[in-house]
Design brief:
Layout (H helix, E strand, L loop, with lengths): L1 H10 L12 H10 L5 H14 L3 H5 L3 H8 L5 H19 L7 H5 L6 H12 L8 H9 L9 H11 L5 H14 L21
Helix pairs in contact: 1-11, 2-6, 2-8, 5-6, 9-11
Amino acid sequence: MIQITNYLDELFPNPRCELNYTKDYELLLAVMMSAQTTDKRVNEVTNVLFKKYKTLKDISKAKLEDVINIIKPIGTYNKKALNIINISKRLLEDKNGIVPNDRAYLESLPGVGRKTTNVVLSNLYNESCIAVDTHVSRVSKRLGIAELDDDVLTIENNLNKKFPKEKLSSLHHQLVLFGRYYCKAKNPKCDDCKLKDICKNK
């Protein structure tokens, strides 16, 4: 695993989430919206959404139709728009508008599952969490960290076992970026990859 972390450290020495946010709730909402779409597309709609609704209270009082119109480019927008408003209401009612370091609570919010919670806890609270998205899943399977038929929870557990706890937060970003720009689903950049000797995608 040292070979993997050394190469990822070389490629991405200072990895960060590519979703744009300035407030805790903005990250939570952006990650929830990022399911089945790209971070780039989410950033385009949140740029409009968070400029129009400058506070969590503003979002909680937004008209559903207005939110739908703003986030239409990201797909499954009807459900996500409803989630945006309801998450905002819940945070205000339950937590005074603060996104808490509380896995059980976060996973109780509409549209928020384990993957979203892991991203939020890792970025906001530097918790040792690793979220398994399509990129992390693909890279893990190609590099022999996981088997081809492993589900996301099995992959997450494998990563937790095989890598140091203090590396998990940055490793998540590195695996996402590696999968997004190098170890792509189609036309991966294998020729120059320093991990091709351990890769199963041959």
